[in-house]
Design brief:
The structure is a homodimer of 135-residue chains.
Chain A lengths: L1 H24 L6 E9 L5 H12 L10 E6 L12 E7 L2 H7 L3 H10 L3 E10 L8
Antiparallel strand pairs in A: 1-3, 1-4, 2-3
């Protein structure tokens, strides 16, 4: 009986520790997304656009305010991409962090690299809402 | 000593169970994003656009293929949003799931609701890349 009680106490203590661990790891309730859709100029080769993408993807290692970074090439079958071929999503914890990213030297250096091959860019930032309740 | 060994065994077993649980919960390595940027027609009131957003946000409860759903209103200080005011990001595990969503009756019902108030829509889907290594 004593063994059982002790084991139960250990199990409960471990459970609590796991919960505390989870709470500590918990990301901020809402994230600030920075969505960048890119359309390269006609005649820009895949090798050129790949170099741009690599340069963009290097920014998180240079700008600590970027919390998450992801991107990809359009594969929508709907044909509603208006010529935009790539999407990049950067995530920030605060507007202050986003505002530090925009004029950051490494970002501005990247802007200089992409500008000559860029036809159009669309940028939307938003505070993430994830509600999915029925109306 | 016996108590210690038994407790240790319980702890190890629990740890293993947690690991197995984690592996089972682990999301797919890459996610398929479906990014939808929306521009409402001039004259559409906030109450009208809010109703549309609520209807959109209700889709995950009707279409099980939608793995994640988030959205938000543009707050970028850059002025590069080309009139698009809202962004919605739906996440799917597979292209098959995305292809089931597009003609899904509940999605098509929503399209009928949004169409009369929609000025423009931009859709980009991509398989998420998250590499951020330096060039």
């Amino acid at each position: 009986m004593k063994l059982l009680v002790t084991c139960a106490a250990v199990v409960i203590a471990l459970g609590m520790q796991t919960e505390v661990g989870r709470a500590a790891e918990k990301p901020p309730v809402r994230k600030l997304r920075h969505v960048v859709c890119v359309k390269f100029k006609d005649g820009v080769s895949k090798a050129q656009s790949d170099r741009i993408i690599v340069a963009f993807a290097a920014l998180p290692s240079k700008i600590p305010q970027i919390r998450e970074f992801e991107f990809g090439a359009n594969n929508s079958p709907e044909g509603l991409n208006k010529g935009f071929t790539h999407c990049f999503i950067l995530t920030f914890d605060t507007e202050k962090d986003r505002d530090a990213y925009l004029p950051h030297a490494s970002h501005q250096e990247f802007v200089k690299i992409i500008k000559p091959v860029l036809d159009e860019v669309l940028v939307i930032d938003y505070w993430q809402e994830t509600k999915s309740s029925s109306p």
